[in-house]
Write a structure and sequence with these properties.
CATH topology of the largest domain: MetI-like fold
Helix content: over 70%
CATH superfamily of the largest domain: MetI-like
Keywords: Cell membrane, Membrane, Sugar transport, Transmembrane, Transmembrane helix, Transport
Radius of gyration: 25 Å
Main location: membrane
CATH architecture of the largest domain: Orthogonal Bundle
Order of helices and strands: HHHHHHHHHHHHHHH
Number of domains: 2
Strand content: under 5%
Subcellular location: Cell membrane
Domain ABC transmembrane type-1: 112-307
Transmembrane segments: 50-71, 108-137, 149-171, 183-202, 239-262, 289-307
Length: 322
């Protein structure tokens, strides 16, 4: 079965599961009533469960409300986030004009190509360093190993506190070297920022893989490369999926450095999205902005959906679960 077939099958199962939730909810209600009648559960326990479920549903609605509002604004007429009838426009007036403008009249396509170039460089450079680095730090003892580990932790913690000074120095350095307005250099820079934290995360995940698996393979005659390729990498898929998502986000969402170093013809999607507001003068085209934001967020949502099971397992084994 090809990877595409597996993805389409998993999507089909997910859709089928969502469509059958009323039947599953009814079955769960019947089981609960039966348990109460037979004394296996008390009315108080059922009430606590109901209150907790209602609270979780209310919290979910609050968290999803901004997404729904932006989606509704992208489908409405005019240029405001609110219509004359209230917060939301009449659904009968919904249209795809804003999406047509974003796809065919704005600079979305050019910015998307630029973002894909930056993200591709970020992911390729990051993964080529993170995977062997994490394996070496997890499985090998060498001179300076502890110092490298502490250095990785340091780089993941002090960056935010030095962000302004770093940005000024970065801009001056890149301009003097003629490296500003360069998508490839920007991708490498993002990769350099993503490597310390993600190497530490993947190293923590690999620490949970029993060494006995490697020893058994070596006893059976496997070489070191075969051990890595056939044991370490397959068992590290959840951790690698988490690192892949994080490195993708590092190149896709970043705004400040891209806005500082790039010129208008090389803008990425995050900077182009901001320019809709900055270049709008006294009137902001919120409808087009909302459609642009929805399209900008779709790849991130798609990647997380496809890697959801791996990401959840990786965060749990990597010591980052909720």
């Amino acid at each position: 079965m090809s990877r595409f077939t597996r993805y389409t099958t998993s999507i089909g199962r997910w859709i089928a599961r969502k469509l059958t939730w009323p039947r599953r909810a009814a079955d769960s209600a019947r089981v609960t009533v039966k348990q109460v009648r037979t004394g296996r559960r008390t009315v108080r326990d059922v009430a606590k469960t109901g209150v907790g479920t209602a609270g979780a549903a209310a919290l979910l609605l609050v968290l999803l409300f901004p997404v729904y509002w932006v989606l509704a604004a992208s489908l409405s007429q005019g240029s405001g986030l609110m219509s004359s009838q209230g917060i939301f426009a009449d659904p009968r007036s919904y249209n795809l004009e804003a999406y047509r403008w974003v796809l065919f009249e704005s600079s979305f396509t050019y910015a998307a190509v630029n973002s894909l170039i930056v993200v591709s460089i970020t992911v390729l450079v990051s993964m080529s360093v993170i995977i062997p680095g994490a394996y070496a730090l997890s499985r090998r003892e060498f001179l300076g190993r502890r110092g490298i580990l502490y250095g990785y932790v340091l780089f993941t913690q002090v960056g935010a506190g030095l962000s302004i000074a770093t940005l000024i120095a970065l801009y001056a350095l890149f301009v003097n070297l003629g490296l500003d307005n360069n998508l490839l250099v920007l991708g490498v820079f993002y990769a350099a920022g993503a490597i310390p934290f993600n190497t530490w995360l993947l190293k923590t995940f690999m620490d949970n893989i029993p060494v006995s698996y490697e020893e058994a393979a070596i006893v059976d005659g496997a070489s070191q490369w075969q051990v890595i390729r056939e044991i370490i990498l397959p068992l590290s898929k959840p951790g690698i999926a988490v690192v892949l998502v994080f490195t993708f986000l590092a190149g896709w969402n970043e705004f400040v450095i891209a806005q500082t170093l790039l010129q208008s013809h090389n803008y990425t999607l995050s900077v182009e999205l901001y320019s809709l507001i900055a270049g709008g003068g006294y009137e902001t085209p919120w409808t087009e902005f909302s459609a642009f934001a929805i399209l900008f967020a779709l790849p991130v949502a798609a990647i997380y959906f496809l890697a959801q099971s791996y990401v959840e397992d990786g965060l749990s084994f990597g010591g980052m679960s909720g």
